[in-house]
Amino acid sequence: MTEPAEPQKKQLSFVQLLPNVLTIIAICAGLTAIQQAVFGHYQQAVVLVLLAAVLDGLDGRLARALNSDSAIGAELDSLADFANFGVAPGLVVYLWALQDLKRFGWIAVMVFAVCCVVRLARFNVANKSENHDTKDGYFVGVPAPAGALLVMAPMYLDFAFPQTPHMSSALVSIWMILIGWSLISRVPTWSFKAVSIRREHTRFLLVGIAFLGAAMLTFTWLSLAGLCLAYAGMVVWGLVTRGKA
Fold first, then answer.
1. Bridge partners, residue 190, by sequence
2. Which helix (H) or strand (E) covers residue 167, if one does?
């Protein structure tokens, strides 16, 4: 005679809910970024999108560490990714530079958003099957958070060099469409998750992170522009060395 299965717990501790709490805060940050852009506070809007990206990187890892993964948490995280990386960055850039283009500028925003949602859908399907989205330490296409970081690159340059002429709206639109394409492409993009550091080299990594943190705090916009340039270079390198999209 088999023993009856233990009933599932109907209560969860607050600690177990922390990953979902971080996801909700990330959604609020993304929505508030749009609100800040509406009022012309573009630097605050960019910071909020970046905050949402940081929280997105933390919630999944925290859920795995606490063993509190859930189906609703996974769906919530996916929806948050689209709001924070597909909708918020596109609208922030549109309000910053593309309103003069009207139709073409809005088309660029829609193309970027649709590419982002397709990228996320492909990622979710790959994770639920044996065809993982990461192969040999490389993502297939640019991840959505990286796409959000890259699509705002013209804003970083404008904030870093306020005395220089503003980038034309047409170029910003073309850049947005190009980043949208990179999201759904087959371009192999290096994954930081595949990085492993030998124990004797960890001190150099920590010093490098400290240097990067100091640069971000001191020269925020210039550092972000440099990160985008370095990441774009890595994407091009992956395309050249591992095959075309």
1. 138
2. none
On whether the CB atoms of residues 189 and 153 are closer than 8 A, the answer is no
Q: What angle do helix axes 42-66 and 144-151 make, rounded to 10 degrees?
A: 170
- Report yes or no: 14 and 62 within 8 Å, Cβ to Cβ: no
CA-closest candidate to residue 68, choices 127, 6, 19, 128: 19
If one looks up domain 14-242 in CATH, what number appears?
Answer: 1.20.120.1760
CA neighbours closer than 13 Å in the CB half-sphere of residue 52: 34
Instruction: Quote the CA–CA distance of 102 and 75 in Å, as a whole number.
Output: 34
Report the SS3 class of residue 170. helix
Q: What is the dihedral of CA 84, 90, 91, 96, to 10 degrees?
A: 130
pTM of this structure = 0.84
Domain extent listing, the chain: 14-242
Beta bridge partners of 134: 139
Summarised one tens digit per residue, pLDDT across range 83-108 is 999 999 999 999 999 988 878 999 99
88, 30 Cβ separation under 8 angstroms: yes
Task: Give pLDDT tens digits for 32-62.
Answer: 999 999 999 999 999 999 999 998 888 777 7
The distance in angstroms from the start CA to the end CA of the chain is 58
Helices of type H across the chain: 14-38, 42-66, 71-81, 88-93, 103-128, 144-151, 153-160, 169-184, 202-218, 220-242
